[in-house]
Hints:
Elements lengths: L1 H5 L1 H19 L15 H4 L6 H16 L26 H9 L5 H5 L3 H9 L7 H4 L2 H10 L2 H8 L3
Helix pairs in contact: 9-10
Keywords: Membrane, Transmembrane, Transmembrane helix
Amino acid sequence: MEFMELNWPVLAVAIVIGLIVGLLIFRPRQRVSLTDSAPIRPHMASGEGRAITDEAAAAASDVAGHMINARVHAELPGATGTPDDLVKLKGVGPKLAALLNERGISRFDQIAKLSSSQVEALDTSLGAFRGRFNRDRIVEQADYLARGDIDGYEARFGKL
């Protein structure tokens, strides 16, 4: 009993932490079902990914962008048409192409329209691929491919 009297604050904190952890572990889960009749948000119409992870990332960026008054999806040129095979660009492999797709970039014309500040912002978020855009001149390559100038591309960068 003396132990309880001396250590009651520690025991109270331990009980509160235990209750919080228990609530987090055993809380009821919300069931979500997706439907095709849901309204299309603006970023969905611009060609961003359609997987559940893409939807979650887009929703989070919508909320965060609204909270900080930033135009999240308007910062990148919109994709129109079918996605291009970004791996055709020299210096872009499957992993970098996947990172670009996660960021809403799926076409050569999007890359070709990036401003230097957009390239810098994108480059800082690419982790291990940082510096690749400038080193491999990816924007310049994308410009040739977006215009369909295969001969100009091959003369400048080698065989496609």
